[in-house]
Write a structure and sequence with these properties.
This protein is mainly alpha-helical. It has 2 domains: about 70 residues; about 80 residues, no CATH class. The chain contains 8 helices and 3 strands; from the N terminus they run ααβαααααββα. Strands 1-3-2 form a 3-stranded mixed beta sheet. It is elongated.
Length: about 220
């Protein structure tokens, strides 16, 4: 503890026996009180820092929560659609004109698809494959090739069976179309052979002979 020389000089000048001791005690008490005050101020400062850190953490968590909520609210919810209607539209070939996108709340995409004729068939074929696959796997939602929707549970199984039946009929129809020319050719060749066999047979037509007596 440093004591000012001026203070010591004043104590000597006053020539009082207990003056220096008294001043030293007072200075000691003042220094102790100052140290206590400085300690309390440091504790208060550290407490404020901790509170600020906690409040910043709370504010950060609150802001994060608000951001997540805002993103959830701004994110468009997938509409609930009838899967049977979508399957019929696609299997009937109406997706080539963009009707499938219009039904799935994508009117602009549907108009573009219709005007471009399904992008020359490529776009329509891709949509057809994805929707048919989605129906066959009995998925409760779709989120691919610009289709985003959730299907009602009561329409998933009917859409599956409709897709299966239509695909089987299409396969049978294709097989019949492939077999018809061969069958037609077979019957034509058979008819031609029968005609040739008929022409090759000799025609035996006997003319009746009449013996008439000469008249006298």
């Amino acid at each position: 503890l440093k004591i000012s020389p001026l203070l010591v000089y004043l104590c000597k000048f006053c020539s009082m026996p207990y003056t220096l001791t008294t001043f030293l005690v007072v200075l000691s008490l003042c220094s102790l009180e100052g140290a206590a005050l400085s300690g309390r101020s440091q504790d208060k400062h550290s407490t404020l820092q901790v509170q600020e850190q906690n409040s910043s953490a709370v504010d950060g968590g609150l802001l994060q929560h608000l951001r997540v909520e805002l993103e959830y609210e701004l994110q468009p919810a997938s509409p609930v659609k009838n899967k049977v209607v979508l399957a019929i539209i696609e299997l009937a070939g109406l997706g080539f004109c963009g009707v499938d996108h219009c039904y799935m709340d994508r009117p602009l995409m549907g108009v573009i698809k219709g005007l471009t004729l399904g992008a020359c068939g490529v776009w329509a074929f891709i949509d057809y494959v994805f929707i048919v696959y989605n129906c066959l796997v009995r998925s409760s939602s779709i989120n691919a090739v610009s289709f985003t929707a959730t299907f009602s549970d009561s329409t998933i199984s009917p859409a599956f069976w409709i897709t299966v039946v239509v695909l089987v009929l299409k396969v049978l129809s294709w097989c019949v179309k492939q077999c018809l020319p061969v069958t037609d050719l077979y019957f034509k060749q058979r008819e031609l052979r029968e005609r040739m066999a008929t022409v090759a047979q000799p025609t035996t037509t006997e003319s009746p002979t009449t013996n008439e007596a000469p008249s006298a």
